[in-house]
Amino acid sequence: MSDIESLTRLPDHFDGTVRLFPLPGVVSFPHVMQPLHIFEPRYCDLLTDTLAADRLIAMATLASGWEPDYEGRPALEEYACIGRIVSHTPTDDERHNILLLGIRRVRILQEVVTNQTYRMAKVEVLDDVYSPQLAPERPLLKRLLLEEFRKYIPESALAQENFSQLLDSQMPLGIVSDIIAYTVGIPVARKLQLLAELDVDQRAKMLIAALSPSPKQGDACGPENTSLSSGFPPPFSRN
User: Fold this and answer.
1) Which of 5, 14, 171, 187 is least surrounded by CB atoms within 10 angstroms?
2) What pLDDT score does 163 carry?
3) pTM for this one?
4) 27-60: per-residue pLDDT in tens?
5) How far, rounded to the nearest angstrom, does the alpha carbon of residue 10 sit from its chain's CA centroid?
6) How confident is residue 167, by pLDDT bands cut at 50, 70 and 90?
7) Which Gene3D superfamilies match (predicted)?
8) Same-domain status, 11 and 57
9) How distant is the alpha carbon of residue 32 from its chain centre?
10) Tell me, what's the pLDDT at 127?
11) Which domain holds residue 19?
12) pLDDT tens profile 182-207
């Protein structure tokens, strides 16, 4: 088994119970590295317990209207992403920087009542669906998606190098779609739709439509107005 396969595989004993790290406006995807800056006491508790256990955290998205109850238990979007902590750097002021590698899509079934300061839930693990009938068309679909994504890549050497690696890779369409969906600054609601879509071909088509300018909107959805999400690659997200 390769290193990446071992990192993106759930433990054999995984029972569907996850620690939740819900944030507003953040949607994580499988096979994407999510930088996080952790400082709230409840999430520092979550990090301590996670590092001592399976190193797994489910990144969830707070539903709209979360602001009045942020310190409590505001509503969550239905779909989330389990990630594995692959790097942890404590700071001098008792904060933490981590890198979380997304590994699996999940649907939140119900929250679990605990005595912890953070939230936990039971989730259903979801698999990508590849239609055998559409296999001959998939290479073209991948190329069309990458051509649309190319329009959004900054001219910086790092961004161009990262895109070249993505272009030359043999990664399947599902992974490529998830990387692009995470990176591009499309609306959170659209990202959540992409996270919820299990049909890989349909997901790629949805993403191409999101990246392509609409005839009715001119360039409203084009590269000039749909920026990369905090750059490519992105910086840390703060809790």
Assistant:
1) 5
2) 77
3) 0.86
4) 999 999 999 999 999 999 999 999 999 999 999 9
5) 16
6) confident
7) 1.20.58.1480, LON domain-like
8) yes
9) 6
10) 95
11) 3-127
12) 999 899 999 999 999 999 999 999 99
Crossing angle of the two packed helices 157-168 and 138-150, in degrees rounded to 10: 170
Q: What is the 3-state secondary structure (H, E, C) of the chain?
A: CCHHHHHCCCCCCCCCEEEEEEECCCCCCCCCEEEEEECCHHHHHHHHHHHHCCCEEEEEEECCCCHHHCCCCCCECCEEEEEEEEEEEECCCCCEEEEEEEEEEEEEEEEECCCCCCEEEEEEEECCECCHHHHHHHHHHHHHHHHHHHCCCCCCHHHHHHHHHHHHCCCCHHHHHHHHHHHECCCHHHHHHHHHCCEHHHHHHHHHHHHCCCCCCCCCCCCCCCCECCCCCCCCEEC
Integer Cα distance of 16 and 118 in angstroms: 17
In this structure, what CATH number is given to the domain that contains residue 105? Answer: 2.30.130.40
